[in-house]
Design a protein that fits this description.
Number of helices of chain A: 23
Largest interface: A-B, 53 and 43 residues
Largest sheet of chain A: none
Strand order of the largest sheet of chain B: 3-2-1-4-5
Radius of gyration of chain B: 15 Å
Distance between the termini of chain B: 30 Å
Order of helices and strands of chain B: EHEHHHEHEHHE
Number of strands of chain B: 5
Oligomer: heterodimer
Shape of chain A: globular
Strand content of chain A: under 5%
Number of helices of chain B: 7
Structural class of chain A: mainly alpha
Mean pLDDT of chain B: 87
């Protein structure tokens, strides 16, 4: 990737301990904990009286908070600034997937109505082996995705607390683990909605402040940044807006396809649709979720433009790689600057320290909300899907709690260790987990919901093929070079056709073919499974609150 | 002395160990026994996922058949044993944090004795879980009888 090495120059972000930003972060954490605690002690009054459900707007905010991680908050602007047009692929990829979810999957998952993503795979493909593979994949996705978040937290800690990146990763990961493992209920929908409001406010206040102070924008910076973009292209770097200058057309397409399909295969995104009140709420939650996500994504490109201009010519007299003459243009900024660009933009515009701190705190909120969701999806894969369903069917709640909390602890430690020396930029790390989700989960989810003849053998063979392709691609161009010190990919040809970031373009059609072919030559699924699938996409809407399994049972 | 005895149970060996003690007391005093299963929202959070906690709060317990079975099995076990001894058993399922819910139930229904098991965990497991029995002691005002699972070892 584009990561030039700078020996003397480290980071343009003004490091050192800052009191007000540090207090902002601490205050924000306490607020989340307080809300979590408040909603936790609030008793569940009657288990059988429905009608207290939260609506689609609040649900949409929860989708947004769960979705928008450090990768969205920091990473996308970084990729657009350093890779221009290519980076816009992340914005396209990370939003379009919601249309597929909306049309093909949200309401259908609501009808299925179980607990975890491996539950769906295990029940639909009537196989514990399939459940096991799905649970394993869930754990891997959570880990890879969380590494990017750890990296983002480390960068923000450098700025706010003035500690080293390594210390920052460790401190914030420890806080996150404690937060999730001990406070619990962190992701209760109300808390998620509040986290969304905080992170989006922090992001937008930073954007508006920079736009107003520099006279670049007023009401809608999203569409007012045109002249600045033109200036950026003319004065500094033509490549910025030139399609496929940094990466090929193929790579761009592969990336976008991976991100779109990965969105539809992410366990922590899908489980939300199991529990909404009804199908209508499932659909409208998706629409609202997409809107809330776009509020941030539209801004990332604007941040990249403002940030690029300021990086080349800062208002505040900070040394950047460009002003020091270490890089010809902002597009060659070092990885750490890129990943800190959102906060850096505000700093370079000479905004007050508390404002920069607020923007950085927003990044931490984004990373925290998503990491919490990921850790929970990992712990449920271990405690519910592996331990309880496969190993000890009569496990008590307390035992599940031990397994769940131990998993959170372990995955937190592992994430912190790998994030100390991340193999790629934040956005790239997260893109890899999307490629895995797209190759392994999207085909079994999609065919599982829509094709009743998909068999257990087909599902298992498909997931294994998906694992082989997506893991293989990442090992080939990122993991093996990183840990053996070899320059470049093991097989350059392979890396060009099946890149680790975008293995789904090749992977998903292959996995679809594997599932279909294997399903055709193996024995049809049992009748009750077929009925379950029919119920999931039947044009007759089911009665409110009836899940597919009940409906299938009623048919008898 | 005791008219209403509460037995919190999660269906584990630890909890069932206390059942015989409770039923024996109930038989002697002619007391009514309430078997209470608390769906621990913290356990649901890490094992089934946070969304499922929301589902419980929304009052959609009817959509969670696996949890229902688990709860009914646990309280049903107490009811069965009680029937054998001629003790009347009321079964209940609530959700929340176990010690708080035990305290609440005790107050609301005028329980005058709580009999519960304790696993006697130590070290890391204790740090990860804490002790429901210990917390219950602190949150309820009625007498609590704690039956340790290790009683026979010593």
């Amino acid at each position: 990737m584009i990561e030039p090495v700078f020996l003397e120059y480290t980071n343009a972000l003004d490091e050192g301990f800052k009191l007000v930003p540090a207090l902002t972060i601490v205050g924000m954490m306490l607020l989340f904990l307080g809300i979590g605690f408040f909603f936790r002690v609030a008793a569940v009054d009657d288990l059988w009286v429905a009608g207290r459900s939260i609506g689609s707007i609040e649900n949409g905010m929860a989708i947004g908070a769960n979705w928008m991680s450090a990768a969205s908050y920091l990473g996308v602007a970084a990729l657009i600034a350093t890779a221009g047009y290519y980076g816009v692929g992340f914005v396209v990829g990370w939003t379009t997937g919601y249309f597929i979810l909306l049309i093909f999957m949200a309401a259908q998952f609501r009808r299925f109505g179980k607990y975890t993503a491996p539950d769906f795979v295990g029940d639909r493909f009537y196989s514990d082996r399939a459940r096991g593979i799905a649970a394993f994949t869930t754990l891997v996705i959570a880990l890879v995705y969380a590494i990017g978040q750890g990296s983002g937290m480390g960068l923000m800690a450098e700025y706010i607390l003035g500690v080293s990146y390594e210390a920052g990763v460790i401190v914030f990961m420890a806080v996150t683990v404690a937060y999730v493992a001990l406070s619990g209920m962190l992701g209760a929908t109300k808390n998620m909605a509040i986290q969304y409001v905080i992170l989006i406010l922090a992001f937008l206040i930073g954007l508006y402040a920079v736009g107003l102070s520099q006279g670049w924008s007023t009401v809608l910076p999203y569409i007012e940044a045109g002249p600045e973009t033109a200036q950026l292209i003319d004065a500094f770097h033509a490549e910025f807006a030139e399609p496929f200058a940094v990466n090929s057309f193929y790579m761009w397409t592969a990336l976008v396809v991976s991100l779109i399909l990965g969105t539809c295969g992410l366990p922590h995104v899908l489980v939300r649709f199991y529990t909404v009140d009804n199908e209508r709420t499932a659909r409208w939650s998706t629409v609202w979720g997409l809107f809330f996500i776009c509020l941030l994504y539209w801004g990332t490109a604007t941040y990249a433009v403002f940030g690029g201009l300021l990086y080349s010519d800062p208002v505040q007299d900070t040394d950047t790689a460009v002003t020091l003459g270490e890089a010809d243009s902002f597009m060659q900024m070092p990885g750490a600057d890129g990943d800190a660009l959102v906060a850096l933009t505000v700093q370079l515009a000479d905004m007050p320290e508390w404002l920069v701190g607020l923007v950085a705190a927003g990044a931490v909120a984004a990373a925290l909300a998503t990491t919490a969701g990921l850790f929970i999806s990992a712990s449920s894969a271990a405690a519910h899907d592996i331990y309880t369903n496969l190993y000890k069917t009569d496990a008590t709640q307390r035992e599940q709690m031990i397994v769940g909390r131990t998993t959170i602890l372990l995955i937190g430690v592992l994430t912190a260790i790998i994030a100390l020396n991340p193999p790629a930029l934040i956005g790239e790390m997260v893109a890899m987990s999307f490629a895995i989700a797209a190759c392994v989960f999207f085909p079994v989810f999609f065919l599982g919901l829509w094709w009743e003849n998909a068999t257990q053998e087909g599902g298992i063979a498909g997931m294994l093929a998906g694992i082989l392709i997506s893991f293989g691609a990442i090992a080939n161009d990122t993991a093996i070079p990183m840990y053996t010190g070899v320059e470049g990919a093991v097989s350059t040809e392979l890396a060009t056709i099946v890149p680790g970031l975008g293995s789904a373009l090749v992977g998903v059609p292959v996995v679809f073919a594997v599932i279909i072919v294997v399903s055709l030559v193996t024995e049809n699924p049992p009748e009750d499974v077929k009925r379950l699938v029919r119920q999931c996409h039947s044009p007759e809407p089911m009665e409110k609150l009836q899940s597919a399994e009940d409906a299938a049972a009623d048919d008898d | 002395m005791y008219e209403k005895i509460l037995i919190p149970t999660d269906g584990s060996e630890v909890a069932e160990n206390a059942v015989t003690h409770a039923l024996d007391v109930a038989e002697k005093y002619g007391a009514e026994v309430h078997a209470l299963y608390v769906i621990d929202v913290d356990a649901v959070d890490v094992s089934l996922g946070t969304e499922q906690v929301q589902r419980l709060k929304d009052g959609h317990f009817d959509e969670m058949p696996e949890l229902q079975t688990e709860a009914r099995d646990a309280t049903g076990h107490v009811a069965e044993q009680g029937e054998g001894m001629g003790v009347e058993v009321v079964e209940s399922v609530v959700a929340g944090q176990p010690h708080r819910q035990i305290g609440r139930y005790t107050e609301k229904n005028g329980m005058d004795l709580v009999v519960m098991g304790s696993a006697g965990r130590s070290g890391i497991r204790r740090a990860l879980l804490g002790s429901v029995a210990e917390r219950t002691l602190r949150t309820t005002r009625v007498p609590v009888m704690v039956v340790d699972i290790h009683e026979d070892d010593e």
